[in-house]
Amino acid sequence: MRYVAIRLGLSLLLLVGVTIVTFVLTNLVPGDPVIAALGQRAADDPKIVEAYRAAQGLDQPLVVQYFLYLGHLLQGNLGTSIGTRNPVVQDLGYAFPATAELAVFAIVVAVVVGLVLAVVAALRRNRFSDQLIRAISVVGISVPTFWLAVAAYFLFFFVLHWTPGSGRLSPIYDAPPRVTGLFTVDALLAGQPDVAADAFAHLVLPGSVLAVYTLGLLVRFARSSILDVLNQDYVRAARAKGLSSGRVVVAYLLRGALLPILTIVGLAFGSLLSGAVLTEQVFAWGGIGQYAFRAATSLDLPSIMGVGLVVGVVYITVNFVIDLVYGFVDPRVRVG
Amino acid sequence: MNHLPARLTAMTATAAAVALIVTGCSSSSGGGQSTSSKTLVVDNAFDLKTSDPARAFELTGSIVDKAIYETALTFNGSDVTKPVPQLTTYTMSDDEKTITLTLNGKHVFSSGNPVTIDDIVWSYKRVQGIAGNPSFLLSNLSTGKPFAITKTSDTTMTITDTQPNPALPTILPNPSLGVLDSKTLEGHGGTTGKDDGAESYLNATSAGSGPYQLSSYNVSSKVVFKPNPKYVGDKPAYGRVVLQNVKGPSQKIDVQGGSAQLALNLNSQQVNGLASGSIKVVKTPSANVGYLWLNQNAGVSGGLTNQPDFVKGVRHAIDYKAIQTIAGSGSTQPGGIVPSQFLGSLESDENNTTDAAAAKSDLAKYQGRSITLSYPTDAALDGVSFADMAQSVQSDLEGAGVKVKLNGLPIATLLDSFRAGKLQAGLMYWGPDFPDPSDYLTFSPGEGLGLRAGWTKDMAPEVTKAKEAAIAAQGDARAAAYQAWQKAANADGAFVPLVQAAKYAVTNGVSGVTQNAIWTVDLATIE
Asked: Residues B220-230: pLDDT tens digits?
C-alpha cells in the first residue's frame, strides 16, 4: 500500500510539473498567436485584434493567464481552441479515442509480433533467422515513421490494393453512434458489423506502421533479456523436468524477461504518441496527432497546452500502471 | 525445443494472413465504391477554423461556405471580373458610393424559411458586429469605417461607403458574406454583435440556402455534406460529399488510387506525369502573388535595402525565369503586384526584368555587403517552397556580388516580425481578399503592407499620387490608373512581384471542376 501511495504521489507531482512545463514552453514560442490566427488584412485592424485578444483571454499578464488556466483546469476546463473555437476538452474528447484506437492496435501488434520474433531470435541465436530478425529490428528502429507511412500507403493501397484509403472509415460510411469514440467498438455496439470491419481495415495499415518502431525496440530488448535467462539454472531445470517447450517459453523465459519488456512497453507509449503526429498526417486519421499538428502550426496555444497535458497524463498514467505491475511481477521492487 | 520456432512462425503467418484477409475484404466492400454510390471525396490540406461565414476567412472555410450558403452576388466559374446575380441583382449609384441590392426571385433556406432582405441585412450586420476575420470586407479599407447597411423596402437594401468604392460588387460574392437564416439563428444565440453565440450551431447544423448542408463537421479531419432539399437551383450531382484533410503526398496516392475524386493541393512536381486515363489535371493561374520586400526604414535596412540603386539592382539581378521554373508549368511573372486575372493588372514592366549587367552596375558599390532574407518555412505559395525561391534569390544576388543570409522562420513568427517592420528583406505572398485592384493598395507607401516594409508616404510621393489617382478613377479609366500606380511602385518601391504559381486540381473520373480565386472550387458544380 505504501508502495502504491508513493508512486501515486510522485505521479501527481509530475502532473503539476507537466502543467507548468506545457504552459511555459507554449508561451515561450516566438510569434503572436493573434497575428497567426487572423488574416493579414484583419490583423491590420486594431479593433479586430483587440476583440480577438480579449475573447481569447490573451490581454491578461502571463502569470494571471497561468493561474486562470490552472483554476479552469481544476474544473476540467482546458480553455477554448483558437483554431476550432470549440472547448479544448471537447476537441480532445473526439481526437483522443481515435489515437487511442490506433495506439492500442499498434502496441498489441508490436508486443505480440515483437515477442514472437524475440523468442525465435533468442532460441536460434546466431543462426540465419536470428540475423534476419535482428536486421528487421534495426530497420524498424531506424526508418523514419513519416517515410515509412507514405511508402506503405503507396505500396499496400495504391499498388497492391490490399488496404483501404486514408481516414478512419470509407467515405460511404458515417461514423457509428458515439459511445467510446473507438469506431470498431462503437460500430459493434450499434450492431453495424460492416462498419466495424471497415474501421478495422482502416486501422491495419496506420497501426502497423506505428507499431514498427516499438516492435524493433521490443525485439532488441526482449531478445537480450531472454538470452540472459536462457541459461539460468531454473530454465535448465524446467527443461530437464520434461516440461513442454511452450510452457518453458511462456512460464520461465518470458516471465524472467518480463521486467525489461514492461519498461520498453511503457517507454513505447511516448514514441507511439509522437509517431502518431506523423502517421496521422499521412493517413488523415483525425486523432491527437493531426490535432497537435494543426494546433502547433497555427499557434493555437490552448490546444497545444491541452495536447501536451493529455500526452503527459497518458505517459504518467501508463508508467504508474507499469510501476504497479513491476511490484506485482517482482515483489523485490516493492520492498526496495 | 527445435520445433517451437516453426510453430511460432506458423502462428505469426496465420495471424498476418487473417489480418490481410479482413483488410482486403473490408477494402473491397468499402473503399473505391464512392462514385457509384454518388459520394464525392475531395482531398484538401485543411486550414479550416470554422464554418460560420462571419468568422471564416480561410481557403477551406471558403470551400465549405460556398457549398452551404448563397451570397447576394456571385461569379460564374473562374471569371472574377464580372459579378452576377444570385440572391439579388444590383445597381451602383453614379457616385459609386452606394450599391442597391434587389431580391432576385425566390430562394429558400434549408429550414424552409424564405430568404428575405431582412436576412441579408442581418447577415451583413452580423459580419460587422462580430469583428471577426472577414469583418473588414464590409468596412472602408482606408478609414476602417463600417459601411452603412440599410433596408429600403421588403425587396431592396443599400450598402453605402463614405468614399467612392467601385469594388463593392466584387466584394459581395465572398463566401464570408453568405446569407444566413436569421430567424433560425436568433433561436440559437445568433445576434449581430460581439455577444453572438451561434457559431457552434453553425458548425453542427448549417443555416443556408445553398446547394448543400452540413451532415457532419470536424475541423481537423473532415466535413461531410448532404444536399439541401430546399435549394432552388440545379440539384448537385452528388448525394454525399466528403471534404477530408489530407496532405499533398497522400492526396496524390488517393486520387491515383481512386479513393478521392479530386485533390486540391498538389504542386507542380506532384502533378508531373499524373494525367493519364481517367486522371485529369486542371491548371489555373493562381491569384496569389509571391513577392520580395526590401525594408525602406533606415534603421532596419542596414544602409542597403533603402538605397534606390540597391533596390534597382536587386530587381535586375533576380532571374525571374528561374523562379518560374521552380514554381512549375503554368506559372507566370506578374508585371505588378495585381495578379494577371484582375482588372488593372500589368503584363510586364521593364523595372522587373533580369539584366545581369545592369544589376552589377547598380550593385557595384555594395559588393561584399550582406543582407538577411527571411521567408516562411511552414507555408508555401500554392505548393511552391519559399525556401527554394529564397535560395534562387540568394544565388542571383550573390552572382551580383551581394551576400545573402537566409533566415527561414515559422510563418507565425515571420508575420509577427514583418508586421512590426523589423525584417530587412524577405519573401511573402498576398492572396486576394476580393478580386479588385483596390485590394492591393495596401502595398502603397504609408499603407498596411507598405509600413511593414518601412515605406512611408514621404519616401515616395509619386507612388502616393498615383495611388490617389487610382482611387479617384471611375469606370473604364480604372484599369489604366491602377497600371500607372503599379508602374510608379515598380520604379521606386519596396516590393518586387516575383511569381504567380499555377494552381492544380487533379480529378479522377469527375468533371465540372473550375477553380476560382475566391472560393477555390464550387463542390456543387462537380459532376
From this structure: 889 999 999 99
Q: What is the pLDDT of residues B284-300, one digit of tens each?
A: 889 999 999 999 999 99
Residue B1 lies in a domain: no
Type of residue numbered B82: K
Distance set, CA A20 to CA A293, A299, A310, B391, B438 (Å): 21, 18, 14, 40, 47
* Contact (CB, 8 A) for B75 and B82: yes
Domain total in chain B = 2
What is the Cα–Cα distance from A52 to A75, expressed in whole angstroms?
Answer: 24
* pLDDT at position B37: 54
What DSSP state is assigned to residue A231? T
How close B184 gets to chain A, by Cα (Å)?
A: 21
Q: Are residues B348 and B389 both part of a single domain?
A: yes
Q: Are B186 and B68 members of one domain?
A: yes
Domain co-membership, B59 together with B188 = yes
Report the chain B residue with the minimal C-alpha distance to residue A83.
B49
Beta carbons within 8 Å of B344's beta carbon, 6+ residues apart: B338, B437, B470, B478, B479, B481, B482, B483, B486
Cell, residue A280 = 496521422
In a domain, B14, yes or no: no
Q: Which of B9, B26, B51, B136 to mutate to test the interface with A (most CBs of A within 10 A)?
A: B26
Q: Are residues B418 and B476 in the same domain?
A: yes
| Whether B372 contacts B424, CB under 8 Å | yes
Of the candidates B199, B220, B256, the beta carbon closest to that of A294 is on B220
Are residues B405 and B440 both part of a single domain?
yes
Indicate yes or no: CB of A86 within 8 angstroms of CB of B22.
no
Q: CB distance B253–A154 less than 8 Å? A: yes
- CA angle, A186 as apex, A180 and A188 as ends, to 5°? 145
The CATH number covering residue B466 comes to 3.10.105.10
Q: How far apart are alpha carbons A135 and A142 in whole angstroms?
A: 11
In angstroms, rounded to a whole number, what is the distance separating the alpha carbons of residues A165 and B27? 8
Per-residue pLDDT tens digits for B233-277? 999 999 999 999 898 888 999 999 999 999 999 988 899 889 989
For residue B127, the domain's CATH number is 3.40.190.10
Indicate the pairing of strand B39-44 with strand B262-263: parallel
Q: Is a pLDDT exceeding 60 seen at residue B121?
A: yes
Q: CB of B10 within 8 A of CB of A147?
A: no
* Residue for grid cell 429600403: B152
β partners of residue B406:
B373
A285 in B contact zone (CB under 8 Å): yes
Domains and CATH numbers, chain A: 31-77 (no CATH), 92-303 (1.10.3720.10)
A59 CA: distance to closest CA in chain B (Å)? 17
Residue B348 belongs to some domain of the structure: yes
A interface test, pick of B7, B25, B27 with most A CB neighbours within 10 Å: B27
Per-residue DSSP letter, B139:
B
Q: What is the pLDDT along chain A (336 residues), one digit of tens a residue?
A: 777 788 788 888 888 888 888 888 877 777 777 777 777 777 777 777 887 788 777 788 888 888 888 888 888 888 888 878 788 999 999 999 999 999 999 999 999 999 999 999 998 999 999 999 999 999 998 999 889 999 999 999 989 989 998 889 988 888 899 999 999 999 999 999 999 999 999 999 999 999 999 899 999 988 988 888 888 888 888 888 888 888 888 888 888 778 878 888 887 777 777 778 888 988 989 899 888 888 887 788 889 889 988 888 888 888 888 888 887 777 776 655
**pLDDT, tens only, A249-281:** 888 888 877 887 888 888 777 777 777 888 898
Q: Say whether residue A33 is in contact with chain B using an 8 A CB cutoff.
A: yes
pTM of the model: 0.82
Q: Are B104 and B89 in contact (CB under 8 A)?
A: yes
What cell numbers appear for B209 in the block? 440556402
